[in-house]
Amino acid sequence: MSSIEKMSIQGIRSFGVDQKQMISFFTPLTLILGPNGTGKTTIIESLKYITCGEMPPGGKVGGAFIHDPKIAHEREVKAQVRLQFKDCSGKMTVVQRSIVASQTAKSVSVKQLEGVITRQGKDGQKHSTTSKCIEIDREMVSLLGVAKPVLDNVIFCHQEDASWPLSEGKALKQKFDDIFASTRYVKALEAIRKLKQEQVGQIKEYKAEIHHLKFNKEKAQEIRENLSSIETRYTVSKDDVKKIKEKLEPIEDQLEVICEKSSDLYKKQSAVEKLRGEKNQMEQSVQDLRDNISQEFQGSTEALKQALKDFQQQVQEKQEMFEQFQARASSLAIEIEKNNKDKTKFLLEQGKLAQEAERQKDFIKKRDRRIQQLADEYNLEGVSVSQQLSDDDIADFTQMMQAKYEESLQQAKAYKERYEEKENELQHRIDEVRDTRTKLEQSEKMKKEQLKKNVEEIKAINRKLNEVDASADKLEQLGRDLKREEYELKQAEKSINIDKLRAEITNLQKTKEECDKHLRDLSEEQTKMSNQASARAQLNMMEKENTVKEEQIHKIKTKHQDTLIHLLGHMPSENTKQQLEKYIGNQEGMLNKLNQEVRKMVVSISSKEANKKNVAEQLRKKEDQLSDYENKISEVCGSQSFESGIDTIKNQLEDAQGNKANFTGSETVYKHFLKRVKSQKDQGAEDTECPLCMRPFSAPEEVDELVEDMEKKLRLAPQKLKRFSDDVDVFQRKYNEMLKLQPIMEQMEVLRDQEIPNAKKKVKSLNEELKKLNAEKEELEEDLAMKMSDSGIAKSAIPDLAMMESYTADLKDLKKKIASQSSKFSDKGSTRTLTDVNNEKEEVQIQLDNTNRNLDSKRNKLDDHIERVNELKATVNSIQEEKLHLESDLANTCKLEETKTELTTANQNFEKEIREARQQMQPLGQQWESLIKEKKKITSKKEEQFDSMKEEAVQILTKKNGVSSTHAEIQRYISAGRDRMLEDIQEKLKTQQTKIGKVEKEKEEIEDNSSRLYKDITSQKEKQRDLSDNLQMRKKQEEIRAVEQKVSQLEQQLGGINTTNLAHQQRQLEAQKDKLVKEKSQKEGRQTGLEEEMRKYRKELKESAYKDADKKYRDMMIDLRTTEIANQDLDKYYKALDRAIMQYHKVKMDEINKIIRELWRNTYRGNDIETIEIRSDEDLDGMSKQRRVYHYRVVMIKGDTALDMRNRCSAGQKVLASLIIRLALAETFCLNCGILALDEPTTNLDRDNIESLAHALVQIIKEREQQRNFQMVVITHDEDFVELLGRSEYVEEFWKVRKDDYGCSQIVKAKVQDLGSR
Prior knowledge:
Blueprint: E1 3-10, E2 21-24, E3 29-33, H1 40-52, H2 69-72, E4 76-86, E5 92-103, E6 108-112, E7 116-120, E8 126-130, H3 136-144, H4 148-155, H5 169-180, H6 182-292, H7 301-378, H8 391-495, H9 498-533, H10 535-568, H11 576-637, H12 642-683, H13 700-740, H14 742-824, H15 834-891, H16 893-975, H17 978-1054, H18 1059-1102, H19 1109-1163, E9 1171-1178, E10 1190-1198, E11 1201-1204, H20 1211-1229, E12 1235-1239, H21 1247-1264, E13 1271-1276, H22 1279-1286, E14 1293-1299, E15 1305-1311, H23 1313-1317
Parallel strand pairs: 3-13, 3-14, 12-13
Antiparallel strand pairs: 1-2, 1-4, 4-5, 5-6, 5-7, 7-8, 9-10, 10-11, 14-15
Helix pairs in contact: 4-20, 6-17, 6-18, 6-19, 7-16, 7-17, 8-15, 8-16, 9-15, 10-14, 11-14, 12-13, 19-20
């Protein structure tokens, strides 16, 4: 049997995440005590979760089953339950489940982690299996040896679901069906019934199919006979056609000779006509050539050819010269184009260098001006820009600015440190006030709690005193009840002679055994007689079976002969199956080896592909990163490059700064001029002068206009100055952003030039390796496929060979059985008939049934008597215990009064101390708030001043960096030597221009010569064409003379031949040939008809209806007979399983109700309910006509009346009934698991029923203490109940659940004996 050893809980509900809580489970009883809310039920929930994998009701919603992350002050909480137990085989096993709860913005998400089961193997080593490999819930059910519904509803039933036996009908039926596991067997019955119905329909279909197949079989036989007759007629017709072909051969030979002669004549006539046509075409060509020739050549043909040859040579020479001119002109054009490109390039370079030189001068002016401004602004000594500044001057200036920046920073830090000292002093005073206030609040809280606890204890003492007052009368009543129950016990013990009743039961048991033996003997005799009657039929069947098996062996050998020779190289004479199995074993070894190689190859390919995927992913990320960087640069720089972009922004910033500085200076000048003009005007000077050009004004109106104009400009000055300042801020911000992008540019260069190309190379290398590995894998798979094919062929032959060996062995056995069966017919049979034996067997069966009924009656009578005596003894014991308890309470009255007085005095002191503490706390709160306000004021002032001083230091650093950046641009220009490069490019431009002029002059000369030569070549070609036409005309004239000579020769060959006789002879032969061909065609036509009929019949035989019609009919007959036999077997199985389910259900319900009856009578102290039962009513309507369905209900019995307990019992009766039913179910179904957990079993029970429940649990433990691994776990908040259970000899220690100072549950061990001493 399985048992639980110990369990650890961490991070579940109120159990903290920092420390595991351990609990060990004792044998046979484990008690867990604790107040409400300390986490007792969490232990049962953890046991149910670790064994069934199910969270308690509502535990899945919002992570309620796990310690709250907000309480733990963590974003994520990991919970774990770990259980050590012994499985059904006694092996130590450890199971662990883990959960993670994560706090999101709005809710808590829960995730199950990997579960682990650890076992100790035979070698002593621990072996772990995770939930990835097995289903832990199913494995735990197997290891504990009990079904999951029993674990869920009986062993580890949650407190909220404890009253399920009295739930509504549908839910109760589902629970009991799951516990009885009846659903599986009812489904099996339904499956058998459906299969039987399907087979009945299938048998009908088989019978209809057999009728159809029989018709097809007869029709196929008829078609085969017709086909044989037509094949005979077809053979005769073929012989006649052969004779006609022999007569046709000489006639066709003569016709062929005549046709050859006629063909020769036709060819010659055709040739003459063709040559005459060619001659006419040639004469026309000669006339056309003569018309095109301007002057006909008078010399010989040889002279004409020589003249044409010389003329062609002259034209060729001029053509070659023309082409040389053209090639030279093209090369000069290319050279000119190249020189122009170089010139353009030099011009662009010159412009760029000139622009850079101009910008260099601007940078130097700007740097010097800015240095002078900063020197004046910060009073830097030794800085002057009257002459050009050197690098040392710039370095000195930078060091002075850096010193100025560090000095500003030091001043800011010193100021901050002074204020922080004041803050620390105030914080110290705040902490002192807060500590004093906290101590007073904690003291007040503790005294309030103690005051409340004392009040509750006073109430409890008052209740006990009231109970003691009423106990005197109850004590007298208990004395009378005790005497009455003792008298009833004595009368019950005398009412029946137990020894006599047991002797009668023993005699009836012996009679039953004798009847059983007699029945067995009669059954053996009946079997023997039946065998003798059917011996002759068995012998005939054996002989037929012998013949069939010999034919089967021959067929199998013929079928697999070629396969065996292919695989083994020969046909074995014996042990064929063993040799083939040996071959398969060798093949399997080779297949395993090849499979391992393929798997290794697949693993290698997978590894490479994973590596490739990883590298590709990295490449993609780097490309995305490069794209992001480029987008960032593009957003800031636009279409410009980064270098040109930063230069542009820098120039714009300098221009804006210059505009702002110029405008600021001009505003000062305007104010000075305006003041001077107004002064002259107020003094009444006649010769008022312009303050700029010193020219006197001609009229006073001009003075007024000047004053008005300058005042207008001064009014607009603030707006313009603000606009210039805004421009400076915008360009400065953009310039700072550009400087921040400098590291991104460096990263872009690394990505573009190094990392991305390297990653692409790696991907390409991995692709090549994968291609090679895939090719090797395909070769291995081809080899593997061939081996598997041979192995598959061999394996497919194994069943037939095994059958052949089985047939051979069966033949030997059959021969022995035939000999043995033949020898039986010489023996004489028994004188009794089979009917006599059956009659005697029925009489003995009736006697056995009567004996069983008497035996059951005697046993029930004995059980009822023992049950009644035990009930009376339990009642006497209970009354005695209650009487002793009341006497003890009467003796403790004085002690309770003293305790009450002490608690009242203590409460008065606590109330006084609480009032004093509140008076002390009132001024402390006001002082604390005043100090907090003062600290916030100092902190705000410190941060405001520090930020201002820090900003001033940052401005100094920014100005210094601006000067350094401008100087760096100046130095970069000088170090690059751009001034020398401008002079070099100007010199190159002069040289390039001279070169271009020279080449263009040469090109013009060549183009003039080429034009003249082209005109000359054109006129020469016309003369050449005239000579060519003369030569072509003379060639055509010679060809005409040759054609006339051929025509003359062919006309001489055709002379004197008579074509009329030749045609007459040809017509006679063709008439004879047509007659024979017609006769032959008629014969062949009849052959075609016969062939069509043969194809038709053969096609019909190939149709699915007639193809293998005999085999189909035979196979269908076999299927019909086997299906009918199988259907009969299914009917037997259905009835047997139905009877077994009925018997199992009846036995289990009787067993459960018997246990419930005993426990109720031993526990319940009321007289309104004698006992309770579980009634299972069989549904006789609807679906139950096809399968059995049971409806369950719990009833309470009083006399002969049984009422449904649901909605009729009190809360205490409901709790007690549910508890007793669970105990009965555990006793019945937990054969391999002796564990039972009871959570708050005393809920809603009065004191009498609590005491009787404790007594009943002790009795259960006593009865099952001999059972190995029996364990009961009881969880309660009732110390009296624990003390009652602790009086037994089965428990010395118990577990106490409490909460620590942080509100987390703790489990500690305590002694039972300490409960009574408190």
